[in-house]
């Protein structure tokens, strides 16, 4: 079977072999600062051993759970998230934890339509 990728945009001439922290390691051993700010950005960097331990521990415990299920990581997140919200006079914050960016955008549009009635 032949497969040809559609040439949608030009590729950058950087032969990336791996990544470490905020640098990309090229096939010739040079490292360059990763300043990419587009889709699927890894804001936590790459190769950090502490982050690796935390992610591995969570992956082994529970790698994913839908919002259809109650689970402790979501409860912990909401507990940690709440103190950063500004005070509302006489009202409570209501939040929605989405499973993806597409779901977040879809529900943001639904909320906007509902609250404006247009």
Notes on the protein architecture:
The protein is an alpha+beta fold and about 120 residues long. About 35% of the residues lie in helices and about 10% in strands. A hairpin with a 4-residue loop joins strand 2 and strand 3. The model has no long low-confidence stretch (mean pLDDT about 85).
**Spatial order of strands in the largest sheet:** 1-2-3
How many strand elements?
3
Assign a percent range to the helix content: 25-40%
Note the overall shape: extended
Q: What is Rg?
A: 21 Å
Beta content: 5-15%
C-alpha termini separation: 50 Å
Overall mean pLDDT: 87
User: Count of DSSP helices?
Assistant: 3
Key phrases:
alpha+beta, extended, 118 residues, three-stranded antiparallel sheet
Briefly characterize the structure.
The chain has 118 residues and is of the alpha+beta class.
Write the layout of secondary structure elements.
Elements: E1 16-20, E2 23-26, E3 31-33, H1 49-61, H2 72-81, H3 101-116
Antiparallel strand pairs: 1-2, 2-3
